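Write out this protein's structure.
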Amino acid sequence: MSFTISEVKSLQEFSTLVPVEWEAYSTPHNAFWEILKGPSIEECTQRQWTWHNADPNSHWLQITDETGAVIGGGQWVINEEDPFKKPMPAITATWWPEGSELKKIADGTLEEFFSGRIGRMNRPHLLIGYCFVLPQHRRKGAGRLFMDWGLSKAGSMGLEAFVESTEDGRALYEASGFTTVNPFYLDPKKEDASEEYTKVRKDFFPEPQRGWFMWRPKDGNFIPGQTKYSWE
């Protein structure tokens, strides 16, 4: 089976992609996505499209099969300058009800997730924001197609690349020249948490979610013991 990749150019196209995103990220369970996706597909579509339009460096891609059906996609962010050159406001989970325990948990999770970026991504680079493929189409080349699109940009521009990976995506990124810098864990615990906070946190995070902070050098060739991390 052959796949085709193209940039998403309209809200209409994006509205077809987001339901695929929801289905793909539901298998296996992804606690961070459950926090990020919001209360409905409609709200998520509008919010992500608004974020996309506010960032000129954002490139959303859709992958279609031979019938034209969307089976996957994702986002590459091409930062030709240091994105942290100007102070960036904290991202808070405005999509969950203000004052709710769920919003507090979401805000804590977002803070944990984004805290590792500023000291490492403070130079021109590419970033994978999202990458997803429907379960029945995985390991058939769709993910590789997505990677090739971004890495061709990285190669022609001479830029390094980053991704915060789940366990399931790690092999794809390693095969594309990324190396694991360190694991990280998402689990927004609070010492003075209410009973409701603890219950909701356990619903979303039955156990801490492990992710992997990964980096790809400009030439895609990481040599252990020789290649130095660009931020050190």
